[in-house]
Design a protein that fits this description.
Alpha-lytic protease prodomain-like; 319 residues; mainly alpha; 58% helix; 3 strands; GMP Synthetase, Chain A, domain 3; 2 domains; three-stranded mixed β-sheet
């Protein structure tokens, strides 16, 4: 006697991306960032440079944000099989990116306030020593950004299809990358401010460039916040993808979609629930086969409803 178990019919819900390279590099960058923070804060105190001091604390806040990135990776992996997460932990990466975006915005606002204070009350700076420390900081930040920059092969697999071909970001890693890129930019701006202050006595440049840097970081923060919030609120999927899925189903027989729900469960996986109405109902597997070219659809649920009105097609037209 052959007995079927319910486990045979269960859907897998492990949509989180295993990005061991990104996690490993992020941990290494945290060590670099904390080390450079200590150097810059110490340099700012010893050499009287508010630019260095602000950049040092800026890096410290980013080290905290990078810690959020590591936490998101490990939390998603540890709870991948936890049934309390209805569709797995694939969105934890987006949540980590969202938290990083908020941290970026806070840092930018603090930079703007600190720059305004320096504009009102400039201080004497030991330019030569401060420039050396700022250059070291720039080199460390550029190296860190190189380590965290996404590459198409980071996640493995080929997720391209005729309908959906854009690169899928690991928003968790992207948040970390933007943080160190912001660090590199503020280090570069600190160098410019210190050099112009040393050569021409333009002490006000320190504050002006600080405000410019804050504006750029706020712009980056807004972009990351917008992208991740769309995923968290289930409105990220492009309209062209939605239309293509509808067309693939409704082009078959006299099918019409009465109810349609699609959302992202990880940076490369989509879940779909559709309710199909037709005069010529078939098994759910038939309708799933119509969507086989949409490689991102990893969790598809089909409800089939038979229409009882007079069909527009004959019995042979729908085959």
């Amino acid at each position: 006697m052959h007995i079927h178990t319910i486990d045979q019919w269960k859907h897998p819900h492990q949509f989180n991306i295993e990005n061991s390279r990104g996690e490993r590099n992020t941990a290494f960058v945290i060590v670099l960032t904390v080390s450079m923070m200590v150097i810059e804060v110490s340099g700012g105190l010893f050499f009287g440079s508010m630019a260095l001091l602000a950049d040092g604390w800026h890096m410290g806040s980013h080290a905290t944000a990078l810690g959020i990135t590591i936490f998101a990776y490990r939390f998603a992996r540890h709870h991948a099989d936890d049934s309390r997460f209805t569709f797995g932990t694939g969105k934890v990466g987006a949540l980590g990116g969202f938290a990083s975006a908020i941290a970026l915005a806070v840092v930018a606002l603090l930079m703007a306030v600190e720059s305004a204070k320096r504009l009102v009350s400039p201080e004497a700076i030991r330019f030569d020593e401060a420039i050396v420390v700022a250059v070291i900081g720039l080199i460390v930040n550029l190296f860190s950004a190189f380590l965290l920059k996404e590459h198409p092969h980071d996640h493995g697999g080929d997720n391209n299809s005729h309908h959906h071909h854009h690169h899928h970001h690991d928003h968790n890693l992207r948040g970390a990358y933007l943080h160190v890129l912001a660090d590199a930019m503020t280090s570069l701006l600190a160098i410019v401010a210190l050099v112009t202050g040393k050569m021409w006595g333009w002490v006000w440049m320190d504050s002006a460039i600080g405000m410019l840097g804050a504006a750029v970081i706020l712009h980056w923060s807004y972009g990351l916040l917008k992208n991740t919030s769309e995923i968290l609120l289930d409105r990220e999927v492009k309209q062209e993808t939605i239309s293509a899925i509808r067309s693939a189903v409704e082009a078959d027989s006299d099918n019409r979609i009465a109810d349609f729900h699609i959302w992202r469960v990880s940076s490369r996986s989509l879940a779909l629930i559709v309710s199909v109405v037709t005069h010529f109902p078939k098994s759910p597997d038939h309708y799933k086969a119509l969507l086989v070219n949409f490689k991102e659809l990893d969790h598809v649920t089909i409800e089939v409803n038979e229409a009882h009105s007079e069909p527009c097609l004959t019995g042979t037209d729908h085959d």
